[in-house]
Amino acid sequence: MKMTFRWYGENDPVTLDKIRQIPKMTGIVSAVYDVKAGEVRSEESIDKIKKQAYENGLEFEVVESVPVHEEIKLGGEKADILIDNYCENIKRLSKAGVKCICYNFMPVFDWLRSELEHMQPDGANALAYDDKTVLSLNPLESELSLPGWDESYTKEELKDLLLRYKELGSERLWKNLEKFLKKVIPVAEECGVNMAIHPDDPPWGIFGLPRIITCEENLERFLNIVDSKANGLTFCTGSLGASKDNDLPRMAKKFAKRIHFAHLRNILITSDRCFEEVAHPTECGSLDMFNIVKSLVDNGFDGYVRPDHGRMIWGEKGKYGYGLYDRALGATYLLGLFEAVEKNK
Ligand code: DNO
After folding, report:
1. Which of 64, 148, 220, 339 is most buried by a 10 A CB count?
2. What are the structural domain ranges in the chain?
3. Going by C-beta distance under 8 Å and a sequence separation of 6 or more, which residues neighbour residue 136?
């Protein structure tokens, strides 16, 4: 297991010299941020991240993300060219030493929350999700903005995309995912890169858009499309865990060898389809972090781990979910869990 930390590049208020001081931190999880989805990243821009990381005693082996262009997910006319570009990105990243690429297949929006600064009893603030609020939002009018969202669309483009996805439905989204995997996974295999799909967050449809990477059955279906180690998962506990139907220790056990990247964070489910993000330890939320880690370790998980969204504490201001302090506390807590589980094996 290697503990890593997400870094949003030079504009990230959390700097590399701070990240390197978190005990046992091996590397950063980052990406080239100034290119659009679908474009090929220049070798210089990839090498620059690697250099910055190495100068700070950190590795750069995990990319999050190489976003999948909407036309690939929609099976549009340009899908073939865009998939070729995607393969080229894999080749270039592997040349720079990247071993794992995290991506998702969520239509239009990445992760979604309805509240960005939910006050908690101890004065921390955190991200929260309430389905009723989300159902009342019009995505064309909403002011919400989260790291990870592509905000380059005009209102008209967004309207058009939402309509096309509604017509597409989930079975055709699966078909388009299959086409993508059948071209991309052989390239990843050849390059020694593990692809790790991120589950849909939250794991149910929003704004009438289909979402398919949501539960045990669908993860299994996904893995069987191309039965190769290179076709793997990002096991994001906060995403999958928002649905009470997902038994995370059981899923960790079943999929451990195909999990290349684990986002380990806790959430507190307050009612059906309603949750808030909390500190990482088991006692702070609804997820059994100890048993999740134990299941991973006992069943042969040997991938990258990162703490995930943190609360804003100690007066910190920054990217929602991606401040320094609470994620650093999360990292050390997770390292403690891993050490305990591994020594007791
Ligand atoms: C949220 C992140 C996601 C993730 C992408 C991967 O905090 O985990 O935005 O990076 O879904 O493509």
Report:
1. 64
2. 2-343
3. none
Q: Identity (one letter) of the amino acid at 209?
A: L
Dump pLDDT digits (tens) for 138-191.
Answer: 777 766 666 556 677 778 888 888 889 999 999 999 999 999 999 999 999 999
The CA 102 to ligand 1 mean position distance, Å, reads 8
Fold of 2-343: TIM Barrel (3.20.20)
Give the mutation target among 29, 30, 65, 66 for probing the ligand 1 site: most ligand atoms within 8 A of CB.
65
Distances (CA, A) of 22 to 3, 26, 57, 313, 326: 10, 9, 12, 17, 11
The C-alpha atoms of residue 191 and residue 188 are separated, in whole angstroms, by 5
Beta bridge partners of 4: 27
For residues 50 and 262, what is the distance between their CA atoms, to the nearest angstrom? 21
Structure tokens at 322: 């991606």
d(CA 130, CA 193): 37
The DSSP call for residue 203 is S
Q: In sequence order, which ranges of the chain are alpha helices (DSSP H)?
A: 16-19, 43-55, 70-74, 79-95, 131-136, 155-191, 216-225, 237-240, 248-255, 289-298, 325-343
Active-site pick, 191, 260, 309, 326: 309
- Does residue 280 carry a catalytic annotation? no
Distance CA 118, CA 311 (A): 9
Distance in angstroms between the alpha carbons of the first and the last residue of the chain = 15
Q: Are 189 and 182 in contact (CB under 8 A)?
A: no
Ligand 1 nearest-atom number relative to CA 103? 12
Q: Are 133 and 115 in contact (CB under 8 A)?
A: yes
Distance between CA 35 and CA 41 in Å, rounded?
7
Quick: pLDDT tens for 72-110. Answer: 999 999 999 999 999 999 999 999 999 999 999 999 888
